[in-house]
Amino acid sequence: MVDFLPVAAFSLRPSNTTSTGGRSLLVPTPYAIRMALLKALVEATGLEAAVERFPEVRDLQIRLRGPDVVAVNRITQMLLRAFDLPTRHWTRAPVAREYGFYAGALRLALGSTADRFLHETLMPTLPAINYFGRRGGFFQFSGVHLSLAPPSSEAGFVDLCLPLRPDDLGYGILQRMEDMRPNAQFPEVDTIRGDPRSAGARRSYAVRLPYRVMTHGHNAVVYQRLDLAP
Predict the structure, then answer these.
(1) Rounded mean pLDDT of 78-87?
(2) Is 21 in a helix, a strand, or coil?
């Protein structure tokens, strides 16, 4: 398990939203976590070595325990878009943005059947990860430790790779997740040399995050993890 502490506000919109709107997710998706790990692998070991390790990254089991409290702030900004040559003016458009502020650490539990990959590749690479999501989602590596048993939901963990079942009526917050397809190949997720029209080998589904609404207002909502609720 590895802990990350927030350095700046977190923001990550699902890929099916437009650039002018969309609510931010509360926590990073498996896709964002895998891409952050791939980026760190490329920088640390080189492109060829990262491509060789891509199947292990794609097949990682990812469980997450979010921060104790997440405060989401909603703002509206004016965005300068296309430049109009005849009038020599920028086109202004209102855009909606959401930013999440974490109180507490973000803990990831990463599992793999490839022990050599875990010890020789994953463990040394985790401290190099400092970014999840978009628009300033910086994090600071805080520590890592090994555990033989998978973390339990009673401790606030949720399996991010397991889609929500229709009969799961538990309490929590629904969040749209994105992950790599089981048969994804590196060229499909390559943001530099890949096809810009590609969907990035994504699959989408919903999960239930163990959070409750503590308070809300006109432009802010505060969530608390359920295992900490009174």
Answers:
(1) 74
(2) coil
